[in-house]
Write a structure and sequence with these properties.
37% of the residues lie in helices and 27% in strands. It is an alpha/beta fold. The chain folds into three domains: 120 residues, Nucleotidyltransferase, domain 5 (2-Layer Sandwich); 71 residues, Dna Ligase, domain 1, CATH 3.30.1490.300; 133 residues, ATPase, nucleotide binding domain (Nucleotidyltransferase, domain 5, 2-Layer Sandwich), CATH 3.30.420.40.
Length: 366
């Protein structure tokens, strides 16, 4: 139901990253030492049992139970600070890309607000609106063509979060005794944790319990996103029904054998493959749309989220995408105990979002 790692380091100026997912809560505590991010402690707690359902299942808990769960994971992982940042789920936001005409920088915000009304189905007074201007291609910004670039206007990433979601998470944090200085949509935390500076265009596949998120990232900037309403729990539920076994048994079989069960588990392999084929088909369609729109290829796929830890997932993904597919290694950005390197490598995909939010919080420290 939970796995925890006790703190190896003690000190001041520690920060927390809190990731409340659909099926579990993850926390990461970091401190800064000699310019490096040092891992102090981390923990994960499944939410299913709080609703009397199986571990690994997505669940919608009321605020009071989520507060209880957050307190439990903080206590069991022995965190020592309340200073934190918290993520918000993609489902709580609307992310879109718009183009605006060439205007002076000081007017961009006003123009974005006007254009955003076309995409946001509720009054702007009910949402928190943010935006980021997407940098122009360096190849375009030459001395001879600078005037042409200006005439093209701006491509802008627009993010809107409904105030109700923010209020809900504020209640959870306050009730848990935490003091967040900001909230961030999980995609941006994930990008910070798994993308290296200067990395070519990549796709992040983040498979959670309830859904799978696809992000295409170019030079550290989100350029496309897509949500598939199928996640790792859908595999478990399909196995349970097809094999006439309990959900708990199906989850155990999935985690134990995955796609590596051998001939005696042929039916298990076939069921999992069919489920993943749908996800990979959607991901390939997203890649194709990006390529057609921007005339660029994606060079690598990075896997995050607990669902991608299924045995054989990487091998099937490489066949489907015909490109380099790797697990995210967010712990690689931290200073960690060397003797736990293997454990961190295995846990990395699950903790990418929590590490990303903690790294942003750590950057606030002077």
């Amino acid at each position: 139901m939970a796995s925890f790692f006790s703190s190896f380091f003690k000190g001041e100026s520690s920060v927390l990253g809190v990731d409340i997912g659909s099926s579990s809560i993850k926390v990461i505590q970091l401190k800064k030492k000699r310019g490096r991010a040092v891992l102090e402690t981390y923990g994960e707690l499944a939410l299913g049992p709080y609703a009397n359902i199986e571990v690994g299942r997505a669940v919608g808990l009321p605020v009071e139970q989520l507060i209880m769960a957050v307190k439990d994971v903080l206590r069991e992982s022995k965190t020592t600070t309340v200073s934190c940042g918290s993520t918000l789920p993609m489902s709580a936001s609307l992310i879109t890309f718009i183009s605006i005409p060439p205007v002076p920088d000081k007017q961009i915000g006003d123009v974005v607000a006007i254009e955003a009304r076309k995409y946001i189905p509720v009054p702007l007074s009910e949402v928190l609106l943010d935006y980021s201007v997407i940098p122009k291609e360096e190849s375009y910004v030459t001395e001879d063509e600078s005037s042409k670039v200006e005439k093209k206007g701006h491509d802008v990433l627009v993010v809107a979060i409904h105030n109700e979601y923010i209020s809900r998470y504020q209640s959870i944090m306050t009730g848990s005794g935490l003091e967040p200085s900001f909230y961030e949509i999980e995609v941006f935390s994930s990008i910070r944790a798994v993308i290296e500076q200067g990395m070519n265009t990549v796709m992040i596949i983040d498979m959670g319990a309830r859904s799978t998120k696809l992000y295409i990232v170019e030079r550290g900037m989100l350029r496309a996103s897509h949500i598939i309403n199928k996640g790792s729990q859908d595999i478990t539920l399909t196995l349970s029904k097809a094999l006439s076994i309990s959900i708990s048994q199906a989850e155990t079989m999935k985690r134990t054998y995955g796609l590596k069960g051998g001939p005696e588990y042929k039916e298990l392999t076939e069921i999992i493959t069919v489920n993943l084929d749908y996800t990979f088909y959607e991901a390939n369609a997203t890649l194709l749309n990006y390529q057609k729109k921007f005339g660029k290829n994606v060079n690598k796929i990075i896997l995050t989220g607990g669902g991608v830890l299924l045995k054989g997932f990487v091998d099937l993904a490489k066949i489907s995408f015909q490109m380099d597919v790797v697990y995210a290694d967010p712990f690689g950005k931290l200073e960690t105990p060397a003797f736990l390197a293997e454990e961190f490598a295995q846990a990395g995909p699950e903790f990418a979002v929590a590490i990303g939010i903690a790294l942003r919080k750590l950057a606030e420290l002077k």
